[in-house]
Specification:
mainly alpha, 124 residues
Amino acid sequence: MDRTCRTVDGKSWRLGFSGLAWTAALVDPRALFPLTGIMTLTVLLAALFIAQGVLEGLMAFRMRPAAGWLWMLIAAIAAFAVGVLIIAHLPSSAAWAIGLLVGIKLIMSGWAYLILTMAATKRA
């Protein structure tokens, strides 16, 4: 009686996953208190931005003689500043920080990587 993933129908998978989701919702109190989940996500997001800012800054200084390193440093400063801004305004920042600052950070990183790529292809 060998049951692999190919022999299990979609209904069994949906039933199993919905049971797993309900079990996780009953065990995890953050599922019942959405503000706690948003606060936790906001703190984790701020920590991620601060870490990303530090790592991008180290990468910018490591590639310093190459063209485009300044844009990487600007993106690192923006990431670090976004993380600090989220932490500084934490109780009220949980409502707006996730959307606005993530968008700003993604735009800054995108521009930095785009300009770095254009500088590398121009040099080659």
